[in-house]
């Protein structure tokens, strides 16, 4: 019996060590993708043009003319964070300010299609940040929206200081959408008027559990559980506390929910879960037919613009 207990103890210790090692691997794999940041700028410039041809030429021309400008703040944890901002095409008639929040492993350049939509077609002032660890911003790992929400709240203050608008919409895609939803449950200034989330996940735990199943055909326990412990120890937050659903339950400001019904990266089921979690205030849902992940604009560009325009006009009329 004693030998059996010793053998069991050794087996448990070996399994625990293995689980810990795999958890560290997954934490690194998920939160520290390579390449990233400045090393990845050229890929994202090409991606921006693939999503909307001519985007980087448009960006460079405004940047060279001094119309589109760079700015830097100190964000969560003391890291330097970068953003660009540009006034509306007709500044004296600006409809408000939009903050455009990019997705996982991308940066502000990739979502120039939204910056162009807001500036050139909806006549909004725009600020587009690079989140922690992305683009020209510093950082040690992706924050998956949870701590990013605090940085975007700082960017909202910066944008308000620049443009002095009393109407601001925060629009994010994928991880950026999760950032927006997580931000929506916090106490915010009155000028933060509305939110648009495009294909965001219900929680980091749910998203990683889905990825683990899809890519590695493995259940959450024990790998995700171990990775969660590693993340909490290293970065101070956990996958389960990083919840869009929990934050949406506290949100009472208008929100437009967008998701492609062919999305299998952030499963389409997350849309209903997120939508149902917001129980207070105006909300509307748009399902983009046959759109895969983060593809709703490219699949239905005119309808996308119209849904955004209608939503913002409705909110302003309230």
Characterise this structure.
The chain is α/β, with parallel strands linked by helices and 318 residues long. It has a single domain, classed as Rossmann fold (3-Layer(aba) Sandwich), CATH 3.40.50.1820. The protein is 47% helix and 15% strand. It has 12 helices and 8 strands. The protein has helices at residues 2-31, 41-51, 55-64, 112-121, 148-163, 175-184, 204-216, 223-235, 244-248, 269-277, 296-299, 301-317, and strands at 69-74, 80-86, 97-101, 125-129, 168-173, 192-198, 255-260, 283-288. It has an 8-stranded mixed sheet, sandwiched between helices. Strand 5 (168-173), helix 6 and strand 6 form a beta-alpha-beta unit. Helix 1 packs across helix 8 (223-235) and helix 5 (148-163) packs across helix 6. The protein is globular, with a radius of gyration of 21 Å. The termini are far apart.
Any idea of the CATH topology?
Answer: Rossmann fold
Listing every helix as H and every strand as E from the N terminus to the C terminus, the arrangement reads HHHEEEHEHEHEHHHEHEHH
For CATH, the homologous superfamily is named as Alpha/Beta hydrolase fold, catalytic domain
Q: Describe the strand arrangement of the main beta sheet, using strand numbers.
A: 1-2-4-3-5-6-7-8
- What's the number of helices? 12
